[in-house]
Automatic annotation (TrEMBL):
Stretches assigned to coiled coil: none
Signal peptide start-end: 1-26
Organism encoding this protein: Metabacillus fastidiosus
Record protein name field: S41 family peptidase
Domain called PDZ: residue spans: 66-141
Source domain of life: Bacteria
Amino acid sequence: MKKFKSLLLLIIAVTLVFSQVPAVLAAEPIDEVRDLIKDYYVEEVPLSVLSKPSIKEITKELDPYSVHMTKEEFDRFMNSINQKLTGIGVVLEEHEKGVRVVQSIPAGPADQAGLRAGDIIIDVNGMSLAGKSAQTAASYMTGEAGTSVSISFLQQETGLVLTKTIIRKEISLQNVEIKWLGGNIGYIRLNSFSEDAAEQLQKGIQTLDRAKGFIFDLRNNGGGYVSAAQEALGLFPNVGFAFQLRERNQEPEIYEALEQDIQFSAPVHVLVNKNTASASEMLSASIKEQKGAILYGQKTYGKGSTQFFFNLSDESVLKLTTAKFYSPNGTEINHVGVTPNITTEVGEELAAAHKDHLIKMYSSYKKLPTLAEVPVTKTFTITMNMDMNWNAANMKNIKLIHIGGEEKEITIQKIDDRKIKVIPKEPLLSKAKYILVINPNWKSKNNREMKSGSYVEVSVK
């Protein structure tokens, strides 16, 4: 199996590790850049571009992800990632107007200041970021904890340009997040395809080993290492191929998924959105094509290109797009994105994926009429068609599950021989949806067993 190790698909503002090639020995960096572009850039570049008098003018004519960093810019960036992680807490991608926020770290300084995924940071401390690399932009935003930085950004939601003064702080980025959802559904969120992503994901799967289904969340995941995506694809049983790579003047080459010792042991639903990019799109396209999981959400970002870092003789760095990737069968991703199997409204991805897991799990149960627009103080009365032996009943057979969340604590009150009342210990959440499940482990007073379970869907005002 081939492991595609060196190419990168993401620039992370708070933490990044990347491969480098040995410094190219040439008299002038601009000549080195010209040679590298001629040899490695993903497309043929006309002489009229290569003959431009400065590196910046040359790279400006390439794609947005090919940029040059001076030694000073590169050193500032390296200092920011080799020490404690301090800054404003954003994951960035190049954009023609500045740098685009791929992810705003929850509860980080940027998140608290109102920066959201999709917003475009256009200047830092009055310095324009147009044409700057994500690494360079990150170096301007990082600094000692407690110091401030002024950020101007184009808000995606309103189209307004806002300026905020943000206090830097140490950032703790948990790359893999896991938790249990109601119905024994395991939830795993991956924030980036770091070098150890597959190892962390396997630990998460082990922790959730009793799961009857999984939700793998790639929303706002801007990508990472190609090799990490190959390894992560190896977590999906029966997914044999990772991606198709096309370099300039080379035959397309198909790379295999790298099978892992620990794999998903139950059906997987994958969440994506418009900020799911690069390596995340590679994985999404592959599992969709090979039916390794079901995708929920919105069409992804559409970054199907890979970059490599080249050291230059003056210690500056050229980041260059060297190839494009496609699905294993050759479906285009760049500027196109990946369309999910099931399209949802923004913010409804998790609830839709969770609900489908639950409905499939209880497919043999009788579905009762939906309870719509109930108050947050709602209690539920369950009526049986014969006298029940409530004293011998296990009340844990009744479950109230928040769709998209956890199982809710309830108490049970006996009303009479045929009726019981289900009382949530806390008020229901407004606008939320629930499913009330009655499992079929009940006996009547004359020892007759309940034939099948039942469930009812509930929506709250």
